[in-house]
Amino acid sequence: MKVDVVVIGGGVNGTGIANDAAGRGLKVLLCEQADLASATSSKSSKLIHGGLRYLEHFEFNLVRKALAEREILLKNAPHIMWPLTFYLPYQAHLRPVWMIWLGLFLYDHLTTRRKLPASRKVTFDATSPLESSIKVGFEYADGWVDDARLVILNACAARNRGASIYTHMRCIQAQRQDDYWCLTLRHKDNGDVFTVHSKAVVNSTGPWVNQLFSEAFAQPSPQAIRLVKGSHIVVPRLHSQPQAYILQNEDQRIVFAIPYEDQFTLIGTTDVEYQGDPADASISSEETDYLLAVINHYFKQKITTADIVHSFAGVRPLLEDESSSAQSVTRDYKLALDTVDDRLPLISVFGGKITTYRTLAESVVDQLAPFFPQQGPRWTADSALPGGDFADQASLKQHLLQHYPWLAPSFCQRLVRTYGTLSFHILAEAQTETDLGQHFFADLWQAEVDYLRSVEWAHCAEDILWRRTKLGLQATPEQVQALTDYLQHNTSTTA
């Protein structure tokens, strides 16, 4: 198989790069050693944000870039991203008022705001879920994102533009040979091996970026990285109000408490130095206690480990900048270009954050331009992701209910917030719920499961319940087993 570019890594950066390159006319192959978004890219705080706390570390360029991207992403994916209001309770002994106001002023003015309101001071009354001693705070706006679906939709967009997407496919060797790269790929499930010839390679493997250099490229990495684990817990919803909270802690870190999947609150994150395989990362008891303590300090409703319904941990590959603590390590990224006689480029991605994935991808493909004179211009800033071609969620819900009046409102809302206009492909000609086939639990039906297998590379119950959807929060072990049995005994063509 011969292609222009092989992208190694199926996280948000890799799929973003594949989509951008395919849209500029390049023949692209992406390989991912597990499921798409199976590592860091599905284990974020689910925010599209500039990073208010990064201003304390004087990362003005990063914040400006992220804020500009926030506007673009909210426009291009209104089904999986939407504005979210944050309250920052004021604690006089942690940060002075002038520092918070300065930070919020910069946050409001480092770039043009179109979709989000300016920050302001707020007061908390008896209806506040916060402790009664907390009287004032600050309000600002950022964005929510379904991180895993952002990855999936970029992969779908890349495929729609001609890219080949291979999951469960590990790159075991990559060598320059004469006029091309020769890459050996091995399927993790059946062991099948095949060879790809490519004119360029992109190493976008996140926390495995240096490991790929030693194992597949047999050469040293040009950049040191620092692996930092961030963990989250999910509990039943702490309050019924729509806003999220950004909570200051004594150690100068912040913790988010974010409304999550209607019934829950997502709490995180931590910053812990990490050693070992990123695929094995999990929350520690110390991290759990840390998050519980912060929440219980601020909120009237107290929680314990017994309230935790789910937890996850992701390993972030941060640029090694000799910072003294994990929380102060830069969240910016670096691209390293390596060639031989100005030929056969290898571009490696170090660092980054989900908010800046699109501009990172754009920069990578820009660096490929000298090697591909036929390459087209930049295009992703004004292109909706699959399913995002609609004005707003309310109008799309109404449109869906006109076509499918039997849809339960909660089911309709989940479809809109997961698939956007792609919901019509799942529901197709169904006249009633029973036309959707086997019912698994909640509002998960066979039609959606089959769609996810045939279109979105889903292989197992975990892929469906935690990355294509978040229905794992509602599933019992027996229901997970029933879905697993269906997937094992009913074969279908997969993406």
UniProtKB/TrEMBL annotation:
Reactions catalysed according to its record: a quinone + sn-glycerol 3-phosphate = dihydroxyacetone phosphate + a quinol
Question: Does the keyword section mention Flavoprotein?
Answer: yes
Q: Please tell me whether the keyword Flavoprotein is annotated for this protein.
A: yes
Reported EC number(s) for this entry are: 1.1.5.3
| Database matches in Pfam families | DAO, DAO_C
Q: Which UniProt keywords apply?
A: FAD, Flavoprotein, Oxidoreductase
**Which residue numbers delimit the Alpha-glycerophosphate oxidase C-terminal domain?**
380-484
- Supply the InterPro entries for this chain: DAO_C, DAO_C_sf, FAD-dep_OxRdtase, FAD/NAD-bd_sf, G3P_DH_FAD-dep
Q: Which GO terms describe its molecular function?
A: glycerol-3-phosphate dehydrogenase (quinone) activity
SUPFAM superfamilies listed in its UniProt record: FAD/NAD(P)-binding domain (SSF51905)
**What sequence ranges are listed for the domain FAD dependent oxidoreductase?**
4-357
Cofactors that this protein relies on: FAD
Kindly give the NCBIfam families that the UniProt entry links to this protein.
PRK12266.1, PRK13369.1
Q: Which family does it belong to?
A: Belongs to the FAD-dependent glycerol-3-phosphate dehydrogenase family.
Which PANTHER family does this entry report, sorted A to Z?
GLYCEROL-3-PHOSPHATE DEHYDROGENASE (PTHR11985), GLYCEROL-3-PHOSPHATE DEHYDROGENASE, MITOCHONDRIAL (PTHR11985:SF15)
Q: Per its record, how is this protein called by name?
A: Glycerol-3-phosphate dehydrogenase
> Which gene is transcribed and translated to give this protein?
glpD
